[in-house]
Specification:
By secondary structure, the chain is α/β, with parallel strands linked by helices. The chain has helices at residues 25-29, 41-47, 56-88, 109-121, 141-147, 161-172, 240-256, 274-297, and strands at residues 20-24, 97-103, 129-133, 178-184, 189-197, 202-206, 232-237, 306-310, 316-322. The protein is built from eight helices and nine strands.
């Protein structure tokens, strides 16, 4: 085992009696049993995020054992569910197993969520797996402007947290045909489309703030947190300087691709020079994404079941697993 926390960061997980088991990449990879779960190169290309170099070795060494661990949790949660219902004399259908995937902008959490969706759907029993992102629960731009927080998009207050909580509660309760609003990264706003979640075996919820604790009310009480309804959670972690670099690289790539679409909210940035684009991307990081990471996203890391720790090249170097 090895310490995979960034230098100088104090964390309860570093103590021998802490809540996490820490494994380096090779030790983690060796935990995987023989399995037929795999991905062809065409599928992997489709699942990778922009600028994300995740390859077949990463899938085998990191995501296959993670899939097997999740499947183990899911199987034993099912045993507990059936035993509890038998004890209570209930005859109800098992509700979806819900997985949260959290992490910073540009850290690769969307790739992680898509990989898990694909791999879990190929696991024993071929479960029905659906994935939603919390982007669809952002307030529309007009509402963010009305509230004066358009420049804080991605911060906890920019989401309709009540609607998101109602959505997950409905899914976790076994309700059929639950609708999630959809977001367009092209127009940078909520669309009129919805995604229907209809009693999957597994639901993956991916977003910046999915592991946020419950807010304290004015009377000192606390309500429910989204993560109260998660059966498993993953936090994708890396040094902030590395994430910043990945964000700038992604911005430069988008400037040459998606920003050239006249419908894009960012079309006006397509003609920037390299120097202008780099300065602008760094400013967005310094003003929005960096502060959000430090104040809101990173503090939720210890709440995860599993933490994937990345190095400068996006490769997962180590894994922390919360002790049962």
């Amino acid at each position: 085992m090895t310490d995979i926390s960034p230098a100088g960061r104090e964390d309860v997980a570093e103590a021998p009696s802490g809540p996490y088991v820490e494994l380096d990449r090779s030790t983690w990879a060796d935990l995987a049993d023989h399995t037929d779960i795999d991905l062809d190169e065409e599928t992997l290309n489709h699942l990778r995020g922009l600028g994300d170099p995740t390859d077949q070795d990463e899938v085998s060494a990191v995501y296959v054992p993670l899939t097997q661990l999740i499947h183990l949790h899911m199987r034993h949660t099912g045993h507990l569910y059936r035993a509890s219902n038998a004890f209570l004399g209930l005859d109800v259908r098992r509700t979806p197993f819900v997985i949260g995937v959290a992490g910073s902008v540009a850290v690769g959490k969307s790739t992680t969520a898509r990989l898990l969706r694909e791999l879990l759907s190929r696991s024993p029993g071929r479960p029905k797996v659906q994935l939603i992102t919390t982007d669809g629960f952002l307030y529309p731009n007009a509402e963010l402007e009305r509230r004066g927080i358009l420049d804080r998009k991605g911060f906890p207050e920019s989401y309709d947290r009540r609607a998101l909580l109602r959505f997950v509660v409905a899914v976790k309760s076994g309700a059929p045909h639950v609708e999630a609003p959809m977001y367009s990264h092209l127009t940078y706003d909520i669309t009129d489309e919805v995604e229907v979640v209809d009693r999957p075996d597994i639901l993956i919820v991916e977003g910046l703030n999915v592991l946020q604790p419950a807010r304290t009310r004015s009377n000192g009480t606390t309500g429910l947190a989204l993560s109260d309804f998660f059966d498993f959670s993953v936090y994708v972690d890396a040094d902030e300087q590395d994430i910043r670099s990945w964000y700038v690289e992604r911005f430069l790539t988008l400037r040459e691709t998606a920003f050239n679409d006249p419908r894009s909210f960012f079309a006006r940035y397509a003609t920037m020079s390299d120097a202008e684009a780099i300065d602008f991307a760094n400013k967005i990081w310094d003003d929005i994404n960096g502060p959000n990471l430090v104040m809101n996203v990173a503090p939720t890391r210890p709440r995860a079941t599993v933490i994937l720790r990345k190095g400068p090249n996006h490769e997962v170097r180590g894994v922390r697993i919360r002790k049962i």
